[in-house]
Amino acid sequence: MAENRSVPVFDLFSRQWGLATAGTLDHFNTCTIAWGTLGTIWGRSVCTVFINELRYTNEFMRDNEYFTVSFFPESYREDLELLGRESGRDGDKVARTKLTPVSHGNCVIFKEACLTYVCRKIYWDRMSVDQMLDPGVRDGMYQKMPPHDEYIGEIVEVIEA
Ligand SMILES: Cc1cc2nc3c(=O)[nH]c(=O)nc-3n(C[C@H](O)[C@H](O)[C@H](O)COP(=O)(O)O)c2cc1C
Questions:
Q1: What is the DSSP string of 130-144?
Q2: Whose CA is nearest to atom 6 of ligand 1?
């Protein structure tokens, strides 16, 4: 998988993975995500991500109007692994990767990304375990962790390298 654009949309998050990033260059956080959707609502093109409240990134998602969702060439896989294993609470994990965060308007993007969605948060909600209809989901991971928060972002810019 050298180029993300050859990845079918259903695999974009689940196989390629991405980074959800919120905040400004002097105060931001990012984490690896494998859950997300692309679609439309209210006449807008949207990218929706699901960030657990346990993630430090969730604080930034909550507190900022904009977030970015970035995808990378396969050569950055180990960086995404690190950013999905370690927490920004414990130090500057981005500095331990090959990635270069760059200020872009109200948000942060990465120089190495091959595809970035700049999103304006238009809705968020905490998923309700009671409304999870698949028992495998409801009685599986959510016995051990709180439900994820859903963030719908209007895609205001697409940056392709
Ligand atoms: C491949 C992969 C996919 C992940 N997908 C998600 C996701 O979609 N949502 C989420 O909340 N956490 C996801 N995580 C977990 C976070 O990336 C991980 O907990 C991270 O260390 C959080 O960092 P933070 O505390 O700096 O925000 C994923 C981790 C990996 C390795």
A1: GG---HHHHTTGGGT
A2: 33
In order of 43, 74, 80, 84, 115, the CA distances from 4 in angstroms are 26, 8, 14, 19, 8
Q: Which atom of ligand 1 is nearest to the CA of 50?
A: 9
Give the Cα-Cα-Cα angle 88, 90, 92 (nearest 5 degrees).
55
Q: Are 144 and 48 in contact (CB under 8 A)?
A: no
Does 18 contact ligand 1 (Cβ within 6 A)? no
- The pLDDT tens digits for 68-99 are 999 999 999 999 999 999 999 999 999 999 99
CA distance 15 to 97: 20
- To which residue do tokens 């392709």 refer? 160
Cα angle, residue 126 at apex, residues 48 and 8 outer, rounded to 5° = 25
Q: Whose Cα sits closest to atom 5 in ligand 1?
A: 33
Q: Report yes or no: 36 and 13 within 8 Å, Cβ to Cβ.
A: yes
Q: How far apart are CA 19 and CA 68, in angstroms?
A: 8
pTM over 0.85: yes
Pairing state between β 44-52 and 115-126: unpaired
